[in-house]
């Protein structure tokens, strides 16, 4: 059974769950009541998406930590200090960075989380590296410069690519992280549409695909944007 804890930062409610899910899961309603006792109504609707439930089934071979956030949009995007704090929390989900050979940051952006991961690798004396993936080549070049300025450039590789079809093999990474990115995927379909939700599900599926068995995955993003059932798209 998952080890579940809730914590709060300012107006944010965070969920953290660790350890594999059992092969046979209860109904969606039972899942939502078990995992999300603080927000049963909102999250039951979110969990109704069958695609996402299939994704949860696929997590059985991996140890996965996830952080989901409820927040006001303006504060979410402007709080650089909060992003830094969350980066530290995300890296703390990995018990032993010295054993990590290769990690992935999906949607690395300007590199706040990417460099936090690289710093952990450096502190523990790991020989591992972290790959930052982003849609824009200009962003990846800027992020590499930032990593060099922070003294962790030797631990960082940046790559341009499509997050909906990650350019890596199955079971490749020891750690996969992503922060404030998944909700931007599929925006060409509109943020609160079934089509956009399906695109975001592709990213989550790819995150699981490239994660090694017993690897660790951490996601921090807007909860309502990660998966929207058809009923939600009408509201």
TrEMBL record:
Gene3D superfamilies: Vaccinia Virus protein VP39. InterPro entries: Methyltransf_11 (IPR013216), SAM-dependent_MTases_sf (IPR029063). Residues 104-216 form the Methyltransferase type domain. One of its GO terms (molecular function) is S-adenosylmethionine-dependent methyltransferase activity. It holds the Pfam family Methyltransf_11. This is Methyltransferase type 11 domain-containing protein. It comes from Salix viminalis. The lineage of its organism: Eukaryota, Viridiplantae, Streptophyta, Embryophyta, Tracheophyta.
């Amino acid at each position: 059974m998952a080890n579940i804890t809730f914590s709060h930062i300012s107006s944010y409610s965070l969920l953290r769950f660790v350890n594999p899910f059992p092969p046979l899961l209860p109904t969606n309603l039972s899942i939502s009541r078990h995992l999300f006792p603080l927000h049963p109504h909102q999250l039951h609707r979110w969990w109704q998406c069958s695609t996402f439930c299939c994704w949860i089934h696929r997590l059985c071979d991996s140890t996965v930590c996830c952080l989901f956030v409820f927040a006001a949009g303006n504060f979410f995007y402007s709080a650089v200090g909060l992003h830094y704090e969350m980066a530290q929390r995300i890296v703390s989900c990995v018990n032993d960075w010295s054993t990590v050979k290769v990690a992935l940051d999906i949607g690395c952006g300007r590199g706040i989380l990417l460099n936090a991961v690289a710093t952990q690798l450096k502190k523990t004396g790991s020989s591992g590296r972290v790959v930052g993936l982003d849609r824009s080549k200009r962003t990846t070049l800027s992020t590499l410069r930032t990593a060099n300025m922070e003294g962790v450039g030797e631990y960082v590789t940046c790559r341009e690519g499509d997050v909906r079809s990650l350019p890596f093999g199955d079971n490749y990474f020891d750690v996969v992280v992503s922060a404030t990115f998944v909700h931007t995927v599929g925006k060409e379909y509109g943020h609160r549409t079934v089509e956009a939700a399906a695109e975001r599900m592709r990213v989550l599926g790819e995150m699981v695909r490239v994660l090694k068995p017993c690897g660790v995955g951490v996601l921090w993003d807007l909860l309502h944007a990660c998966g929207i059932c058809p009923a939600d798209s009408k509201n």
